[in-house]
Amino acid sequence: xxxxxxxxxxxxxxxxxxxxxxxxxxxxxxxxxxxxxxxxxxxxxxxxxxxxxxxxxxxxxxxxxxxxxxxxxxxxxxxxxxxxxxxxxxxxxxxxxxxxxxxxxxxxxxxxxxxxxxxxxxxxxxxxxxxxxxxxxxxxxxxxxxxxxxxxxxxxxxxxxxxxxxxxxxxxxxxxxxxxxxxxxxxxxxxxxxxxxxxxxxxxxxxxxxxxxxxxxxxxxxxxxxxxxxxxxxxxxxxxxxxxxxxxxxxxxxxxxxxxxxxxxxxxxxxxxxxxxxxxxxxxxxxxxxxxxxxxxxxxxxxxxxxxxxxxxxxxxxxxxxxxxxxxxxxxxxxxxxxxxxxx
Length: 344
Description:
- By secondary structure, the protein is mainly alpha-helical.
- It is 42% helix and 2% strand.
- It is built from 13 helices and four strands.
């Protein structure tokens, strides 16, 4: 196999490792995301089917109740990371087949139990009702990405959540903010003392970027641009985004590349968000790319330093070991930056 141009800065070509049949879910995504194979390619079909029948996808689905929920009925945010919300978020990240009846049942259940009418996704009941104060960019962005990726982008409740996200980011007239959740425009977050939240911005951008380019409204495009502006307002590799509560150093989790991704974001996910928003060629990404390639091991692979070991229905990786999933994430970014760089 010829070595692709985007891998020139890696110490070795990771593609043969990523394409091994022993890890069918990674193989499925590598065929599509790195080799550009179409969804109906026979090799893609084969890898997708094998991934659905093997852990961790099969393990997550085996833990689902026939009614569609995981662990307990209700809005499904807790307990992390085995409940309905997280199961669907992780299934989408693993490239699960959204047409599978079990996944469709899970998505339908979530939409029936975790949406605030005419607004976003939320968690937490009080007096039998979901509370708008629990509306946050990280949760809404994560679920937008999962549901759009699993085939529910046209559902009216998903469209409502998209409208809420863009209005919350842009400060649209008439948008209602919540003091305890999203208190103002531009990624403000009560959990971050009301200042813009880098983690929230990453998740919101990734959620909105899941909308096909041809289907993005002007508001979606403006919200994505606002997200890119925040994420590139500093060198992403420093993660020096606004910090509340007197903090002067970024949360250390920013620098622990991992998989899967929950509400925590890492530097690589900030880069993924910028790339998926269409700004992979922005010169403000150069230092972050330098930082990223410095994280590889001698074999051109990347270690999982945030692996959610023993927190999910099935372990995906070993903590502190080279990871196909983290390597795949890094390769996606390197390919996007390469493709967006003239003369590369």
